[in-house]
């Protein structure tokens, strides 16, 4: 399978601050690819380079086989971009904005546009200045999803949407994966898990992990809180059990996936009165992975 995006050794500095420090990114044609990292990691700078808005200082970037800097106008007719904070022409209606963006991108599918307006519950007759943040986001999403672009670049696309509209977005992206490529930058782990074939995690302008979600499961650690009839025997000595705190008949700890079964057996032996488990948040996943990454290079 060919690659829709190929980035190698990308470098970009703003004054003395280095935003990208040799970043690599490969997005295969036809996949939904998650692009993850905390604030300041370099995601937005990478996207701006891919869109031809900023020129890289070093490395290479190829988008749909072309150079995003020297061929920006041509490439923009083959892609659609949705930012996390949408600004619209205030005196145009939502429908007029959608049509204008469609003309810039080589046309819209009228039937798909009508379907998307209904699914996102968006009134296209209202002036853009009257829209809430969520509705401005819907305008950009409808324009992108109704376009004929081969590539969708989505940067925090569900910002401002309510949970119902977030699920509509996910359904739309699942349908799109059959016919085009999606680069999805998001802080919402559930969104990434539900949609992405592969993910790239970056930190400090560098790629630190790339792979399928199954391949990255080693990054996750489950948090456990339990009320017990008696103190658990040998729980602290189990490999893979971390941050154990016990007292007043309760225990709290985090556990690696491989150690979850033996840890639960120790709890059962102590008599479980209540138990709550939860997967790590995206922030926790980042922090744990980065701690391991720092140890490996330290």
Automatic annotation (TrEMBL):
Protein's organism:
Nonomuraea jabiensis
- Location(s), subcellular: Cell membrane
What is this entry's stated membrane topology? Answer: Peripheral membrane protein
Q: Which GO terms describe its molecular function?
A: ATP binding; ATP hydrolysis activity
Alphabetical list of InterPro entries matching this protein: AAA+_ATPase, ABC_transporter-like_ATP-bd, ABC_transporter-like_CS, ABC_transporter_ATP-binding, DrrA1/2-like_C, P-loop_NTPase
Family, as annotated = Belongs to the ABC transporter superfamily.
Highest classification ranks of the organism: Bacteria, Bacillati, Actinomycetota, Actinomycetes, Streptosporangiales
Q: Gene Ontology terms, cellular component aspect?
A: plasma membrane
Main subcellular localization, coarse class?
A: membrane
Name assigned to this protein: ABC-2 type transport system ATP-binding protein
């Amino acid at each position: 399978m060919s690659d829709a995006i190929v980035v190698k050794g990308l470098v970009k500095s703003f004054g003395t601050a280095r935003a990208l420090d040799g970043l690599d990114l490969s997005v295969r044609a036809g996949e939904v690819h998650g692009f993850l990292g905390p604030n300041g990691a370099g995601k937005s700078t990478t996207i701006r380079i891919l869109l031809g808005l900023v020129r890289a200082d070093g490395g290479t970037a190829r988008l749909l086989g072309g150079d995003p800097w020297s061929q920006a106008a041509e490439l923009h007719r083959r892609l659609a971009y949705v930012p996390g904070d949408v600004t619209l022409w205030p005196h145009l209606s939502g429908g007029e904005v959608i049509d204008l963006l469609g003309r810039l991108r080589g046309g819209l599918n009228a039937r798909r546009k009508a379907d998307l307006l209904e699914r996102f519950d968006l009134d296209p007759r209202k002036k853009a200045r009257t829209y809430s943040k969520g509705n401005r986001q819907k305008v950009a999403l409808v324009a992108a999803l109704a376009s004929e672009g081969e590539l969708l670049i989505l940067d925090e696309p569900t910002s401002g949407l309510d949970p119902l509209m977030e699920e509509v977005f996910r359904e739309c992206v699942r349908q799109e994966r059959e016919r085009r490529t999606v680069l999805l930058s998001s802080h919402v782990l559930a969104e990434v898990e539900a949609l992405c074939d592969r993910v790239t995690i970056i930190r400090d302008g560098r790629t630190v992990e790339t792979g399928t979600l199954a391949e990255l499961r080693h990054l996750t650690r489950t948090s456990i809180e339990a009320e017990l009839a008696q103190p658990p025997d040998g729980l602290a000595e189990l490999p893979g059990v971390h941050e154990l705190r016990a007292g007043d008949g309760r225990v709290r700890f985090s556990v690696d996936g491989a150690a979850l079964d033996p840890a639960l057996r120790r709890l059962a032996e102590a008599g479980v009165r209540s138990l709550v488990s939860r997967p790590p948040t995206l922030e926790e996943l980042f922090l744990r992975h980065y701690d391991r990454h720092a140890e490996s290079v330290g």
